[in-house]
Specification:
The protein has one helix spanning 2-16, and strands spanning 18-20, 23-24, 31-37, 40-44, 47-53, 57-65, 73-81, 84-87, 100-101, 111-119, 127-137, 143-154. The chain is mainly beta and 156 residues long.
Length: 156
């Protein structure tokens, strides 16, 4: 019963975040939706794009229908800034430890919500960037979910 209540609370929290468009990565990806908090969105070239202020803490949540079962996962997260790829903190972490609901092991054809936090550091240049957020099986390197998110970094 506790797990059902926890899952329901997380789904409500997910729904309260701002749903954003995303670009699926190449290959298999079963991402159903993505939400970012905070996200003061603005239409830029036809895309609803999040404006992220410097020194903010950002939460990315992705609802994923698992394409296969897996017991060991890893997160790959990076930002592409002006043609330079910068790994985000916690890239390489194991989402099974705290960032997946319901928990691991992941079962094929079940829905999961993956959560990733990162800080918009003050030395990130202002302007457009693209975030890559990938969850994959640690052994086979097969993607469970992968998206690219266009965002804009801005000063306070």
């Amino acid at each position: 019963m506790y797990l059902k209540a926890l899952f329901f609370a997380l789904v409500i929290n997910y729904a309260a975040s701002e749903q954003v468009p995303f670009v699926p990565c190449k290959g298999q990806s079963a991402v159903l939706s993505v939400a970012i908090t905070p996200c003061n969105s603005k239409q830029i070239e036809g895309w609803k794009t999040c404006l992220l202020p410097h020194e903010s803490r950002v939460r990315v949540e992705a609802a994923v229908l698992a394409p296969f079962s897996a017991s060991q996962l890893e997160v790959v997260a990076s930002a592409n800034l002006n043609g330079h790829t910068i790994p985000l903190p916690n890239s390489g972490s194991n989402p099974c430890l705290e960032n997946i609901t319901p928990g691991c092991p992941v079962k094929e054809d079940r829905m999961y919500i993956f959560t990733f936090h990162f800080d918009v550091l003050k030395y990130y240049p202002s302007g457009r960037m693209q975030i890559l957020f990938l969850v994959r099986d640690k052994k086979s390197k097969r993607n469970i979910g992968c998206v690219k998110l266009p965002v804009v970094i801005r000063g306070h």
